[in-house]
Design a protein that fits this description.
Low-confidence stretches of chain A: 344-348
CATH class of the largest domain in chain A: Alpha Beta
Distance between the termini of chain A: 33 Å
Order of helices and strands of chain A: EEHEHHEEHEHEHHHHEEHHH
CATH topology of the largest domain in chain A: 3-hydroxy-3-methylglutaryl-coenzyme A Reductase, Chain A, domain 2
Number of helices of chain A: 12
Oligomer: homotetramer
Structural class of chain A: alpha+beta
Mean pLDDT of chain A: 95
Largest interface: C-D, 100 and 100 residues
Radius of gyration of chain A: 22 Å
CATH architecture of the largest domain in chain A: Alpha-Beta Complex
Number of domains of chain A: 2
Largest sheet of chain A: 9 strands, mixed
Chain lengths: 348, 348, 348, 348
């Protein structure tokens, strides 16, 4: 195997003005072949700087999960074993605590299908995204479960009820990753000047496209225009496993007209998989990026990762707002796209 | 905006042995922070070389889509306009043909919700993934539609029924991107020696984890272990817009025991968004990679992109097969993962 | 087996005022244990009579489907056979036409997963809902397909891609049953007087509850409050197979504020499975009900069933509008519910 | 409003042999226009009587839910209020306990989208299905929540995150109704003689049709052939609100070959909405049916409803097994269907 690197075009955009989980102003890095994304995010970053509190981000929850699969002879056995495991929460929590300085068990959720028992473990994992920590814990759990329940057979360390890098409903409902909401209240004049649109038109478009359009497309727990673009670019620039955009991009844009034409605009991201330590995070350029983002500070456990999650959520809001505003105007999207691609490096 | 690059660790893996859309042997490039993916794909590539026809890939369909949104006063008007547009397929096709050397209109699908009319255009786009070509066509369509139907208002160039970079049902059912099936028939002895498992155990695991587990997770038209990982790595290495892994990773793994313990194993990928020309594809290192992959040859229109799609589908199969085989054995996953991460650069 | 009957409480409600597919006024029958549904539908029926055009219904499409499953040795074979079948559309259509006076083949849609070939046949079936007609056609198709393609094996007459009595995405996207949109424009004063609410509050509630709430619930191509209630009651009263409410209840409520507080309100029902002939329709009391509904007239083929579909769609709109209006007011739902249950027969 | 009744053809089928939640033999009532269902369920009932333990049913969980919607000014407020409510679980539980003899609060689950707060309350409700009890509790909760949190406004008593009579993911994952698994182990000879098939063919068909076919259809947390049919018929005959079949029919059939061709066959139904008291249950004929089913006995709270749920789950298994077995044989389905419809009353 010959090793090399693939160099992804990267730019720092902003700064964004922030409040809530993160305060002040912060530039953000976006690594992407789709370079028109840079000025697009930049436009809404400018909007954020025209608003007192900028973009406010609230972190709702954090956890990493792994679901293991056991095979019983009967459903009766599977259900009984599932109940017994849930009742031994403290034993399982002790196992995790003994194994890791950072991981803590916070939930055990079971589901039975016929004779199959799925057990979904949820852990907090400090500043790591926590995939390895949680997989390691699951491996140890399996040892114990098989010892406690000889009537069960090993099925799989992962039973797809986790769910890792798959678009599912379970992650949003039971939680996986950091859950974040980013929101902004934009005065009517700023909407008109900077976004060339109005609160009513953006709110209407959000209902028609993101909510109704996604519904007929058969989307699942998701209603947004393009979270995946911002997530990919931010994930790549910060050493995240970007395959997680599959689940992280499931989120909901919700907007309201407030007062005399002001725009309330929010992006809800229940499944932000992010970490500031762990695999990929000690590559020198990643380390540098995380430092510049203020995610290498001394904080309480998980604090750097929460900061990173907040920055990503705010960046997603910027890209989403710019695109929706552009799509309220016929021909604006393609025109700006072509101009921007040309600007971004004359590559076309 | 200061520009730089994010260097993603990249390795060439294989070669894979191939038949069907692509014949012969071919190494493939994987750009990822998750470097254990390299030996994992490599293991199944070795399996493919132990089988006469290796991995056979069939390309089923190809198209790119964009759905535009129009707003009528009534459903009656929206339905009537939708029918009229469908009936003018030839006019719409002529508009596309006049505008582009490569794009050809192949389908117009309408759906009405209340007074909202969604029109989903499908085009073939040669060797491009076709996002820009299709968006440009949609923009021109909108001009014509608004002229033909003054009772309609512009809603949005994209109504999310496309669906771009979102996990939905419509893409698999109506098509988006290249649709590919990769399959292999592996003798029992090779399954045992190379994959340390058996056909029965892999087939059972596929049913329990990928089909049943994905079902309870609330997955949507998707049943696989980790297509997203291989797609991300291959997309990044070849200049693709990797945000498309959100839709491309919706696919189904299906396995059967054949004869005396041989394994039939297949990966069906209905939404492979790939191109060999267009945005990002003329970056020098991408050009080099595509050349090495044999995707810079003189072929009929779309032929290079189909080759690329086939290589990706085969690579997805390799990664999927290796992971499933590993998960049939308790403790194999984590053990090999840790060994491989250590090997891959001593980064942990 | 001892046979008896289960007597479901039934009431005629309305009349509803109608335009579009059906004109004039018409009472509708609702058979249900949930008798508060009667005055609830009745309230919006009264609203419809206060509006010039009442509820306008547009029928968008009609078809019945069955998907058969064939098993090949390889995906390559399955894809080839699928293409060959699609190309023989005329042969397949001739088979249907020879077998039935009413059935006509209108679509053949194939999908391949690994070595499995799913073929979804769509037929128009006159005034029947068409399950038996379509199953019979599929049975005959299978004979021919197996004769034409000895490389295929019989898999199943139904491969669940139909999809019958299951909530899926395919039915809405490719069509199954009658597709209908019901809509009404209600003056602000009528909204205030009759529905004790306002257009803005109903529109907002629809977005927050039916669109956002359904999204986080993980609904699939569906955004409504309780279509299932009206469908069940109407289906039972008219001899329909009411298990079809599973798919028929997947629909979308969409509302807008128009002018100075007028309410545009619509219900889109893409999968109304209804028939006026066939199984259950010649029971004497069903015959009487269908006659009273004007669905036993001499009309062009399918005309009686379309009339029935339109009446059902309008009834669904009535029940949906009343409930949403009630839910805009704290405590109205339960209060009216309890009063109504008491009124409806003193059964509690 | 003139009241009448709709008489649904009804037959008692069986008896089924049962173990687990219910022991012994029991006939079951099916009210349906689709009378071929009677002998179809009857066939598998006969199978159950040829197996020692018959069909074993395990009840996994029971609860009824209602989600209320509150509107805040900001996500920050909504998240804070949601956390505060969860922390006041004991206060909320006391409110329920004071209001009802039977209802007990067991879970409060919150989810925030932008400034919208959804609160999903779960209660046990004794032998009632519990819709009214839970709605009444939610109404009282809202009073308290609005008093505790003046920063919140009333949104809706139901925010569709309940989810009532809608096919969603949340009900299966967080629970709604009784959750039941029915299973049977059938010797190879019985499969051959009674079902005219083999364990391997039935297990294969289940994977290909119910799992793979449902996946490509875009089904949601559901993989079965026709649960809706049995549920409708049983619900109608026992005074249940049959609109609940929409959610109740989301379930999973899972089968395995055991030993030398024995068939393990299971039906998992996570959302059985059933009650033996409450609306509709004191109609004289319903009372008689419930008595005959043994659901009018003195049992611990919820015991009669659990018995009813178990009988329904076992009946669903019977219908599902018969249909799958029939579909393994080309032409068996239609042939038996036509014969049976003729037998069932000469109506065709």
């Amino acid at each position: 195997m010959s090793q090399t690197v693939t160099p992804i075009p990267t730019s720092w955009v902003g700064p964004l003005r922030l409040s809530g989980e993160v305060t002040g102003e912060q530039e953000v890095p976006l690594a992407t072949y789709e370079t028109p994304l840079w000025p697009s995010v930049g436009r809404s970053a400018r909007v954020s700087r025209l608003v007192d509190d900028g973009i406010r981000v609230t972190i709702v929850d954090e956890r990493m999960t792994r679901s293991s699969l056991f095979v019983a002879r009967t459903a009766a056995d599977a259900v009984a074993a599932g109940s017994a495991l849930t009742a031994r929460f403290d034993d399982l929590a002790a196992i995790v605590a003994a194994q890791s300085r950072f991981a803590r068990l916070i939930d055990v959720h079971t589901e039975v299908v016929g004779n199959l028992l799925f057990v979904r473990f949820a852990l907090t994992t400090g500043d790591a995204s926590g995939h390895n920590m949680t997989t390691l814990a699951a491996e140890t759990f399996i040892d114990h479960v098989l010892a406690w329940h000889p009537e069960l057979e090993y099925g799989s360390i992962s039973g797809n009820y986790c769910s890792d890098k798959k678009a599912t409903a379970v992650n949003g409902i039971l939680g996986r990753g950091r859950s974040a909401v980013a929101e902004i209240l934009i005065p009517a004049a700023v909407v008109a000047d900077q976004l060339r649109s109005s609160a009513q038109r953006i709110a209407d478009l959000n209902v028609r496209k993101n909510l109704v359009g996604s519904t007929i497309a058969g989307a699942l727990r998701s209603a947004n225009a393009h979270y995946a673009n911002m997530l990919l670019a931010f994930y790549l620039a910060t050493g995240q496993d970007a395959a997680n955009i599959v689940e992280a991009s499931q989120g909901i844009t919700y907007a309201e007209v407030r007062g005399e034409g002001d725009l309330y605009f929010s992006c809800t991201l229940p499944n932000l998989i992010v970490g500031t330590v762990g695999n990929g995070k000690d590559l020198p350029f990643v380390d540098e990026v995380l430092t510049r983002l203020g995610c290498r500070e001394e904080r309480s456990s998980g604090g750097n990762a929460r900061r990173l999650a907040a920055l990503i959520a705010a960046t997603v809001l910027c890209g989403e707002l710019s695109l929706l505003a552009a799509q309220t105007n016929h021909k604006e999207l393609m025109a700006s796209h072509l101009v921007l691609e040309r600007k971004a490096g004359g590559r076309r």
